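Sequence in, structure out. First:
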Amino acid sequence: MAVQNKTAPVTIAESTLTIENRVATLTFERDDVRNALTGTALCDDILATIDWANANRDVSVLIITGAGKAFSSGGDVKAMRDKAGMFAGTPTEIEAEYRSGIQRVPAAMHSAEVITIAAVNGPAIGAGCDLACMCDLRLGSEAAAFGETFVNLGIIPGDGGAWFLQRLIGYQRAADMTFRGRIVRAAEAREIGLLLEVVEPKKLMSRVQELAGEIAAKPPQALRYAKRLMKLAQRTELPDFLDYCAALQGFCHGTEDHAEAMAAFLDKREPSYTGR
């Protein structure tokens, strides 16, 4: 399907993309293969959606979820066995396929300017687990399950999962999941910080939409700057980081949305933001 907006069109091949009240929702529609990221067009759908959302000032939050029983099963194991598709060829050729294929997803997710929320409706396995970890927030249904299971197939997280997972739950817990290749169910995922909340399956999307709506109601430009700061803080020394904070804060103080936020606070009314 295609979604038109003021900035650019985006074409989605095997997902649906909707937008309402500054919240976009990307839903994988490949339940026939449990929303596998390899052997489908889902990676291209993610890339196109991130580009679109970054350029679209009418979007503040992007929800990613899967239709059917799974969030995403990750890689196509049958194709791995048969050495087909991206798994065909010499080691050098397979390396090139990873670089030009699925590794574009973590790069794109890491560059997302909007807030990303994974609505984990079911199993998130392998690259599917890693995709959920690439999001800013994760909410799951009671049917959610996470598996950094690459070692069970004699491979490693080739999509950057080892980078994301330990930043979420710490090295020791990430090492436990990675070295044992075990499945973490929803309750444990909430306990160790993989999930922010666990809700009943039928209530997952309504709760995620509620949270997304609360975030999207904030000043749009300040949201994008706040996310930029959160990402920058992970890789910048404090003195340089504080300089950057001061520069962005100076800009924020000059925006119409800041003036509106102050006026609404003092007038005890709901604000109305324009993104300017």
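Second:
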Amino acid sequence: MKNCKVCIVTGASRGLGRGIALVLARDEGCRVYATARNEDALKALVEEAATGTKGGTVNACVLDQSDDAAVQAFVEQVKKKDSQVDLLVNSAYAGLIAIKPHFGKPFWEKPLSVFDASLNIGLRSAYVMSALVAPLMVKNKAGLIVQISSFGGVNYLFDVGYGVGKAGLDRLTADMAAELNPYDVHAVTLYPGGAVTEIAAFPGGETPVFTGRAVAALLNKATKEDLARMNGKVAQTAELAVNYGFTDVSGDMPKGPFAGVDAAKQCREVMSKPLIQYDVDAELPDASATNNPDIAAMFPGA
């Protein structure tokens, strides 16, 4: 398809990454390079995306994000096929599967591998992919990089490694945006609400399609002025839904306690204040509110 936008979505075999890749291809007519380790799951995504009527496609790319050489080879293959990458979505994340068996434990009672899981396939993999894709965007003086992060970047959530990884993604966006700004390339962090996926089951949470529609809004509905305002910053899926007029698959906004407009407002209130490490008057969060054995039930697929 001529003049279609070219996108790369990592972690696309399931969860939010899958929903993002699906919406971009099936509903927005994009050519999507979808990466993950699970070949069968990627093939199923290709088939579902083909049901769209906009001419978009998913190219299934089996890729281990921990293998830098493989990631570099993947990017080189994309460059050979396409002269541009309009959008990179870093959604690959391995932390929750590692965290789940240890809910209720403090960090010193967990294996060190739990921390590594959040930092390696999450923060580091996002940096590696961004560093390899950015030169093409800089050359074309166009492109958007989106990090899929979480409220855990600004407030304690689940686990020490989880929060450090998400805060790192948020800072990664901000610092990359500063260096990319002269080249008209933008970087935005996206905070989904609590979701309902193959792994997570937050009550009344957003579906991966809702997250996908948020990314699609950044790609196809946000103006240059909008992107300039959001460049280096955090946007929330519910806020984008209000601003750009989309809903979840139900035709409504997510209503759960961890999703939707009300939750987005609460998150924005927290982000509008100095973070606890910079505010000597701030109270430390209650870690047991989200790090307890009962929370593990919200991740039945992990």
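Remark: The first helix runs from residue 15 to 27.
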